[in-house]
């Protein structure tokens, strides 16, 4: 069974999966919830905040 590229969260927001991001091939810089690229294109200080939140 194929993993979906997205789902809708409890607030009705569209959330892309890690699979989608890996197929895209790069970080878009928007701070996506399932970014497999350690938010490399997200500008500071938002990138540091996202990385800290992910570790918590």
Structure, explained:
The protein has 56 residues and is an alpha+beta fold. It has one domain (6-55). It has helices at 18-24, 46-55, and strands at 6-8, 14-16.
Extended strand count: 2
**Widest beta sheet: strand line-up:** 1-2
Percent helix range: 25-40%
**Class derived from helix and strand content:** alpha+beta
Radius of gyration: 12 Å
Counted by DSSP, the helix tally is 2
Written as H for each helix and E for each strand, in order along the chain, the element string is EEHH
Strand content: 5-15%
Could you list the spans in which at least 5 consecutive residues all have pLDDT below 50?
Answer: none
Intertermini distance: 31 Å
Major sheet = 2 strands, antiparallel
What multimeric state do the chains show?
A: single chain
Tally of separate domains:
1
Assign an overall shape. globular
Mean pLDDT: 95
Task: Explain the layout of strands and helices.
Layout: E1 6-8, E2 14-16, H1 18-24, H2 46-55
Antiparallel strand pairs: 1-2
Defining key terms:
2 strands, globular, 2 helices, 30% helix, 56 residues, alpha+beta, two-stranded antiparallel ribbon
Outline:
This protein has 56 residues and is an alpha+beta fold. 30% of the residues lie in helices and 11% in strands.
């Amino acid at each position: 069974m194929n993993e979906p590229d997205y789902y809708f969260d409890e607030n009705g927001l569209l959330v892309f999966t890690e699979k989608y991001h890996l197929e895209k091939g790069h970080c878009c810089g928007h701070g996506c919830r399932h970014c497999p690229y350690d938010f490399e294109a997200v500008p500071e200080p938002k990138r540091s905040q996202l990385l800290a939140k992910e570790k918590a």
